[in-house]
Design a protein that fits this description.
The complex is a heterodimer. Chain A is an all-alpha fold. Chain A has a domain of 28 residues. Chain A contains three helices and no strands. The longest helix of chain A is centred in the middle third of the chain and has 29 residues. Chain B has two domains: 31 residues; 333 residues, YVTN repeat-like/Quinoprotein amine dehydrogenase (Methylamine Dehydrogenase, Chain H, 7 Propeller), CATH 2.130.10.10. Helices cover 10% and strands 42% of the residues of chain B. Chain B has two helices and 28 strands. Classes of the chains: A mainly alpha, B mainly beta. Chains A and B meet through helix 1, helix 2 and helix 3 of A and helix 1, helix 2, strand 1 and strand 28 of B.
Chain lengths: 99, 377
């Protein structure tokens, strides 16, 4: 802060204007713009994928066909946890080791 | 193009996406002409009948001093690796219940572990965002600890799950809290592919589980806190092949059905579901009625080797054996003699399908096997 007056020297030193912080110049918000552009691109890509999926689904088989495959697979394969021998006691795999 | 114009373009694109999703949903409903249980019933199928002594606990593996979080069977021989809150991995001989290795981990906050296809290495991951590999044949250091053979680091969140690619000891897939899955080349320690991420069509929340198809090891599914499961092709990392909706909570666990064309899920919404990977159809919901505010979360699932049984572990200590075809609970391991005393956190089937191992917060692992004689159904 400038000192006020002297001891009658006559000259008045004008005080400096108080500091005035300036905002930085306004740069274009490239980061935000690029981010927004990337978001749009992502959505537009998603539209392409969804259209593709819709097309595939149009030609897709009904759920009953898939259910049939599940049933056929499960009944067509043996399972050591569901032994299906009529009466004979049989052990296999892990079981024969532990009992 | 100005930001305003871009925002308008974004709005239009978002509307189109929503409209397409709705059309997909409607078309899918049209194609859902039945579910597995109704189909099986219409075919005259009856549920598998289990007696109380048919599936029994034949081994209890005791040795951990904290909650068991994860387990994995070795593809050959009868060994199991388990990971626990006590900061150790234990490799067990499932036949004798003996501990073969007890590995003290550099980072105790472990969440997942996996056996390599050759049975010579194990991998683990956890809160340190790293997946580390131990070679079980390495000599121990002066403190008696097994040294880490390889560190796979680049995830920006915890490693929730890991699985070796079948028949490939050098490749492993991880799922992470950073919303991505990563395929790793263990020999170089580098990422081969990243699935998902900020500007990719991937999960929008933590990935909790991964499962690789046994039929086509290029395909894997992931389950996430975004309530979806996604199917990925390792040759196309840029986007998920398909996204599976339906769950109303975190998808905690995913597992391929043995035929490789379907997979199962387990969720915080208390249900397990069966999805078809080629059509995207939700083929069945496995749901047991509970009181309000009492819905136990599904923590882990596994299919029997024929796919007829679906084992599901729950947060309340139940472990249901579902008849996959009839969508009925045929046994609850949680009510049997010698059952766990706390939440079932993990479970897995031996490679030959003859035994089930369950891990629990009671610090134990249990092995269950068939002990009865069954008539032809």
């Amino acid at each position: 802060m400038a000192a006020e007056g002297g001891d009658g020297g006559g000259t008045v030193v004008p005080s400096l204007p108080p500091p005035s912080p300036r905002s930085p110049p306004e740069y274009p918000d490239l980061y935000g713009k690029r981010r927004e552009f990337a978001k749009v691109q992502m959505l537009e890509r998603e539209i392409g994928f969804l259209q593709e999926e819709l097309k595939t689904l149009e030609a897709s088989q009904p759920a009953s066909r898939c259910c049939k495959e599940v049933v056929d697979f499960s009944l067509g394969n043996s399972d050591p946890l569901i032994l299906m021998f009529p009466k004979r006691s049989t052990s296999c795999g892990f079981w024969k080791w532990v009992w | 193009m100005s930001v305003t114009e871009l925002k308008e373009r974004h709005r239009v694109a978002a509307e189109t996406v929503n409209s397409l999703r709705e059309r997909l949903k409607q078309r899918r409903i049209q194609l859902l002409d039945t579910n597995v249980a109704d189909y099986a019933r219409a075919q005259g199928r009856t549920p598998v009948a289990f007696g109380q002594t048919d599936l029994v606990c034949c081994r209890t593996l005791q040795g951990h001093n904290g909650k068991v979080y994860s387990l994995d069977w070795t593809p050959e021989k009868n060994r199991i690796v388990s990971a626990s809150q006590d900061g150790r991995l234990i490799v067990w001989n499932a036949l004798t219940s003996q501990k073969i290795h007890a590995i003290k981990l550099p980072c105790a906050f472990v969440m997942t572990c996996a056996f390599a296809p050759n049975g010579q290495s194990v991998a683990y991951g956890g809160l340190d965002s790293v997946c580390s590999i131990f070679n079980l044949n390495s000599p121990t250091d002066k403190d008696g600890n097994l040294p880490v053979a390889r560190t796979l680091s680049s995830h920006r969140g915890y490693v929730s799950s890991c699985q070796y690619v079948p028949d490939e000891d050098n490749h492993l897939i991880t799922g992470s809290g950073d919303h991505t899955c990563v395929l790793w080349d263990i020999s170089t320690g580098l990422r081969t592919s990243v699935f998902g991420g900020e500007f990719q069509s991937g999960h929008t929340a933590d990935v909790l589980s991964v499962s690789i198809s046994g039929l086509n090891s290029r395909l894997f599914v992931s389950g996430s806190c975004d309530s979806t499961a996604r199917l990925w092709d390792t040759r196309v990392a840029s986007r998920a092949v398909r996204t599976f909706h339906g769950h109303e909570g975190d998808v905690n666990t995913v597992k391929f059905f043995p035929d490789g064309n379907r997979f199962g899920t387990g969720s915080d919404d208390g249900t397990c579901r069966l999805f078809d990977i080629r059509t995207g159809h939700e083929l069945q919901v496995y749901h047991q009625q509970h009181g309000r505010n009492e819905i136990p979360h599904v923590t882990s699932i596994a299919f029997s080797i024929s796919g007829r049984l679906l084992f599901a572990g729950y947060t309340n200590g139940d472990c249901y054996v579902w008849d996959t075809l009839l969508a009925q609970v045929v046994l609850n391991l949680g009510t049997l003699q010698n059952s766990h005393e706390s939440r079932i956190s993990c479970l897995g089937l031996s490679a030959d399908g003859s035994a089930l191992c369950t891990g629990s917060w009671d610090a134990n692992l249990k092995i269950w096997a068939f002990g009865g004689i069954r008539k032809v159904i």
